Input
Amino acid sequence: MLRARHRTFIVKNNWELPEANGMEFDQYDTPASRWVAVHEFGQVLAGVRLTPTTARCGIYSYMIRDAQLGLLESIPSDLLFEEAPVAPHIWESSRVFVADTVPAKLRLRVQCSLIDEMVRSARELGATSLIGIVPEHSPRLARRTGIDCVPAGPVIETDDGDRSVCINIALASKLH
Output
């Protein structure tokens, strides 16, 4: 999973992130987090990291809250409409990816599998909602899969023209 994240975020997206031995990881990859991967024949096709909003590791909590508190230079602090939540039933979804090796004809199926597994895993962990940063058009995909996904902040544009938005996902919704 960490090698697939490296290929996606460092090699393909050219993000400056911590890395070692061909793996990408950061201060949020702690024992409090959980990782969900869609894989086939030993190859990771997609993945996501789930972190409780109650997590603490030194000065860090979870990515969205730390960005809002001004601890992360690469993410603007005005990414949410309200104060970042801290509650045992709310988890953060981060480092979401689908590998670029997934053929276009299978991408939607892999994305839907990842969303299904993310929601199932989060529910098993006691979450009733998730908060995350996703590409601007992802909420439409989420609605297509039957989950309740609403913007939790303004659209954020990066220096390279990517547009993202924070979202809230209510896990009480039924999956497809």
User: Anything to note?
Assistant: Residues 26-170 form a domain with the Aminopeptidase fold (CATH 3.40.630.30).
